[in-house]
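Page 42, continued from yesterday. The earlier attempt failed because a stray header line got pasted into the input along with the sequence. Redoing it now with the clean sequence only.
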Amino acid sequence: MLRLLVSRLLYAAVILLGVILVVASLVKLVPGDPVDVIAAGNPGMSVQDMDTLREKMGLTRSVPEQFVAYLGQAVQGDLGTSIRQGVPVTSLIADRLPATGELAFWTLLLAFVIAIPLGIVTALKRDSWIDYAGTFVAVLGVSMPGFLLAVLMILWFSIELRWLPASGYRGSALASIGRAVVERDVSIFWNAFRYFILPSISLAFVLVAVNARLIRSAMLEVLQQDYITFATAKGVPRLTIILRHALRNALLPIVTLAGLQMGALLSGTVVIETVFAWPGIGRLAVDSIQVRDYPIIQAVVLVSAALFISLNLVVDILYRFIDPRVRND
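This time it went through. Structure tokens are written below.
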């Protein structure tokens, strides 16, 4: 396990170095000049002031020099300063990341709560109308864009029925659980959680489709194994066979997929966060691109890559704990 951990950490370090190289050269690759953006908001800035600012921001350096400088700053936790807001980028990301993280949590929870029973039932009812209905839901989920579903739900649940808010964020729903329990007032939790419902459904719809089909395929494969036949011949209850033996082994591929999906969600769901005016890192990236705030764009790319790599490392290690076959190999 130690050798595995060391090798994975080395791979992660190499990938991060590659990401930092791309991020450091982002200013060179993207058309436009951030100094021109700043000068547009300061009409009194002279050409000399602009040249001085370019020198201060390191825009006159070569890509290797920018890479070394950015790497040294990133190792120290310094991801630069926002051009527009003039505050450290790390503080901006720290303010936005919790909103994205909790949205990802509720999205995955909703996706698996629906996908696991749906995958089991469609596998047990293979080639029945239930299986065909599950296939239809899967195709619909993969085919429908998330932003289209988001707009339709806003029109129906927010504008027509006025049940749920169309946009906004009222703080962490998870953090409000403790307060709701202490004060015995469920409305405290509901006032925060209702803002998560529509964005979570918009993101979870496609995940339900993918996960349900994967669970169905894995269940069909597991149910044909010899140990399932042996357990059935011994008279083990059907429910025990399904939940304890079949489902336990069928969920192994889902662990890997869950890590990838969580990494993608934490990287910022740009479209959904924009539609629902969600204060996450995806929307932060979009707003920064519009004003060419390159330090924020660089930091979002780097943090997203680091989160994705870290989650894959955790899943890779976790997989060896839950699957003895992989651990023995």
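Notes: The chain has a mean pLDDT of 80.
Reminder to self: strip header lines before submitting.
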